[in-house]
């Protein structure tokens, strides 16, 4: 794994200023709603530029700031804002940059709540969205209209891992004055840095790998200081979706072990993917760093690694076999989310009415697995016993 040169500094020291808190190794949780002033002039300055200091914890908070500095540095960005969850980070990043009459081009099948924003909320404000196959830059160009102001990327996406050629799409957007946001949750900045590839805003859910223990939510939006200030002064303060100090503290703790966890998860995932590929009842496995992956070349070119998420399909096409497989796992749990210590599966068919399940539709048969921190042999034996009951 090739980590940024300064990652140990970022995770262990950057932003901590321990002399301000008794040289404690672990930072304090500054659990306060407001900050007191001695001088009216200082209070006036804080009103004038709330991002310039501490006034009220809906804005900045010292514990959150430690996290903020580390996450911006990891992304190679000037600045970042930390939200109470990833969906809020995306909402603010988009909402701050569009107006009535605008048009957005988005990858097909973005994250659930992004799609909901595009399909349900934005049409109420006269904003339209075109979904495209984002794998070719020419598709972005072709979908762009005179009123297109925003490109939404998610690379890889979270079920079939479709990638966008990030550098090319970013360059196209720049040439047309279009703002870009990329959901980088799959990779984290350890494996991919959209800002360095020319994207304006990089987003990741901190709920997944950053937290790493399935015990808090969080969301990160990074970019230029000017862009972050624009969002801070409007959506961040107005919606009030900033992260709370205790949750920020949990994420700082998560960051300390992030490289070690990702490294372990990456190694175990390679083993599990190999196991699944050779299994006689498994039809196919989708994983960006497997040579059979349709965009394997692009994946190894723009990503340093692929983490713990992959998708597979069983040879049998009936829904009941998928249900039986998922329900017979003894240790691997069935749940949404990922990035924690625990391995998980989720079948696509859980979100499809049984009457609408189409055995000929490849996507309906998807089962997504997230590989956690357990021993590989423990996971393989659980998969083995659950697959043993499935017809070829
Ligand atoms: C989970 C997730 C989000 C949303 O993050 P939350 O912290 O759950 O709000 C966004 N994008 C992707 C790809 C995700 O997996």
Describe, in short, the structure shown.
The protein has 392 residues and is an alpha/beta fold. The chain is built from 14 helices and twelve strands. Bound molecules: pyridoxal-5'-phosphate.
Which features characterize this protein?
392 residues; alpha/beta; Aspartate Aminotransferase, domain 2; Aspartate Aminotransferase, domain 1; seven-stranded mixed beta sheet; five-stranded mixed beta sheet; 14 helices; 38% helix; binds pyridoxal-5'-phosphate
Oligomeric state: single chain
CATH homologous superfamily annotation of the largest domain: Type I PLP-dependent aspartate aminotransferase-like (Major domain)
Ligands in the model, by name, code or SMILES, are: pyridoxal-5'-phosphate
Number of DSSP E strands: 12
| Bulk shape | globular
Percent helix, as a range, is: 25-40%
Second-tier CATH architecture of the largest domain? 3-Layer(aba) Sandwich
Beta fraction of the residues? Answer: 5-15%
Radius of gyration: 22 Å
Profile the largest sheet. 7 strands, mixed
CATH fold descriptor of the largest domain: Aspartate Aminotransferase, domain 2
């Amino acid at each position: 794994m090739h980590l940024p040169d300064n990652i140990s500094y970022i995770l262990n020291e950057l932003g901590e200023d321990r002399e301000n808190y008794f040289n404690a190794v672990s930072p304090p949780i500054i659990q306060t709603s407001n900050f007191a002033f001695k001088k009216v002039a200082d209070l006036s300055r804080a009103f004038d530029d709330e991002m310039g200091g501490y006034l009220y914890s809906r804005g900045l908070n010292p514990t959150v700031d430690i996290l903020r500095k580390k996450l911006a540095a990891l992304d190679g960005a000037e600045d970042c804002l930390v939200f109470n969850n990833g969906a809020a980070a995306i909402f603010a990043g988009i909402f701050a940059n569009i107006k009535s009459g605008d048009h957005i081009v988005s990858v097909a099948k973005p994250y659930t709540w992004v799609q909901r924003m595009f399909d349900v909320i934005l049409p109420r404000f006269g904003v339209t969205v075109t979904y495209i196959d984002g794998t070719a830059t020419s598709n972005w160009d072709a979908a762009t209209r005179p009123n297109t102001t925003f490109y939404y990327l998610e690379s890889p996406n979270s079920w079939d891992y479709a990638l966008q050629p990030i550098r090319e799409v970013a360059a196209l957007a720049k040439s047309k004055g279009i703002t870009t946001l990329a959901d980088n949750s799959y990779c984290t900045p350890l494996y991919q840095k959209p800002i360095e590839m020319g994207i304006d805003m990089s987003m990741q859910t901190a709920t997944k790998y950053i937290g790493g223990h399935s015990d808090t939510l969080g969301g990160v939006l990074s970019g230029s200081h000017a862009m972050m200030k624009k969002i801070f002064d409007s959506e961040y303060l107005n919606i009030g979706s900033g992260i709370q100090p205790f949750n920020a503290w949990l994420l700082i703790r998560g960051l300390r072990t992030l490289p070690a966890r990702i490294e372990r998860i990456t190694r175990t995932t390679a083993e599990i993917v190999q196991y699944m590929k050779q299994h006689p009842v498994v039809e196919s496995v989708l994983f960006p760093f497997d040579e059979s992956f349709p965009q394997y070349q692009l994946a190894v070119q723009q990503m340093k690694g692929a983490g713990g998420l992959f998708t597979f399909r069983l040879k049998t096409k009936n829904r009941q076999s998928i249900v039986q497989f998922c329900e017979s796992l003894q240790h691997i749990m069935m749940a949404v989310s990922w990035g924690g210590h625990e391995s998980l599966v989720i079948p696509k068919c859980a979100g499809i009415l049984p009457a609408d399940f189409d055995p000929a539709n490849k996507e309906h048969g998807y089962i997504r697995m997230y590989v956690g921190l357990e021993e590989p042999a423990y996971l393989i034996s659980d998969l083995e016993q659950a697959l043993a009951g499935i017809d070829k």
